[in-house]
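User: Predict the structure for this protein chain, please.
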Amino acid sequence: MLSVAPAKKLVLASSSPRRRELLSMCGLAFDIKAADIDEDSFLGRAPERLVRDLSFEKAATIARHIPGAAVLGADTIVVLDGEILGKPKDKADAAAMLQKLQGRTHSVIGGFTILSDGERLTETCETKVSFIKLTPQEINAYVATGEPMDKAGAYGAQGIGASFVDKIEGSYTNVVGLPLKECLAALRRLGIVKVNS
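Assistant: Here is the predicted structure, written as structure tokens:
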């Protein structure tokens, strides 16, 4: 099990229930303070730079209000043929995204930033995800469940959307919302998280 170092307070700068669940299952105690930023103003940047910049801005927004805390910001995007697929605007948009993804391989790019004691650590992680072929009926039925509506690329690999995944190359938790292995390693390097003996 892992724990936050006694002298530290860890804050997750995200309202994502998936990120909260991933950190919680490691036994970590942390606070949640969602960063309210205009993500649309970051559009137009290359995928890796986008997740790096967004994760930093989320962490920095919260760190300004909680001095002395270690703040973790994160962002996840889906990329197909160079096009970034964010969260769908509506059901029609979700169906259109899934139509693009079906039968193809896309990238999930996750980025995280940790700010602590004047230090900044930002990393990215890329996972390749291959989808099975889907019929319009399958896509519409999935969209009707509501699951795609708050997720980049309009699917949840930890939910019903898992049935569409043919193959994952790389970090599964990155697809869910946070590259957990890489993030925990970074938190340990910075002395924020320690392994309980």
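The CA atoms of residues 92 and 143 lie 9 Å apart.
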